Amino acid sequence: MTIQHRTVDIEAAAKLWRDDLPASQIAERFGVSRNVIVGLAFRNRSLFPWRGDAGKKTRAPGPAKPARPRKQAPELKREPEIPATAYDAERLQSARLLHQLSAGECCWPLNTGGPYLFCAAETTGRYCRNHHSRSLPKKNEGKA
Question: Phi and psi (nearest 5°) for 14?
Fold first, then answer.
């Protein structure tokens, strides 16, 4: 039978606890793990009084350190919006939803806000020739 089921052992462990023996030493005496004793103390709080912050380190008395100033988070740059062109307006006539696209159709979004419509022009890659050229950065763009 383990210590958890015998009232005599629980009371004996509680007496050792009140005598300020650490949970690990009490556990050694009963042949159980430290966690069993801590669990007993938790479940039987009337028998195992709270010890306070006895094991915790305390800060030395004296003036408090001033708080370090926090660094500001860097500003996030917004993605530049790609302006719609006459080509996009023309493609809206045959635009499709994403799940309607098949391989070999341009998946460039033509509108903002749902439901999103995509170009769907025939292509060998991901985008049609027009949208592929718009997806690449311009020559002096992005260099600082």
Answer: -65, -35
User: Which residue reads 């912050």 in tokens?
Assistant: 53
Helix, strand or coil, per DSSP, at residue 109:
strand
Q: Considering only CA atoms, which of 142, 105, 141 is closest in space to residue 120?
A: 105
Residue 115 phi, psi (nearest 5): -75, 135
d(CA 91, CA 129): 13
Cα–Cα distance measured from residue 16 to residue 5, given in angstroms and rounded to the nearest whole number: 18
**Residue 7: CB atoms within 10 Å:** 7
DSSP 47: T
**Are the beta carbons of 46 and 18 closer than 8 angstroms?**
no
Flag whether pLDDT at 50 surpasses 80.
yes
> What's the alpha-carbon Rg for the chain, to the nearest Å?
36
The answer to whether the predicted template modeling score (pTM) of the entire model surpasses 0.85 is: no
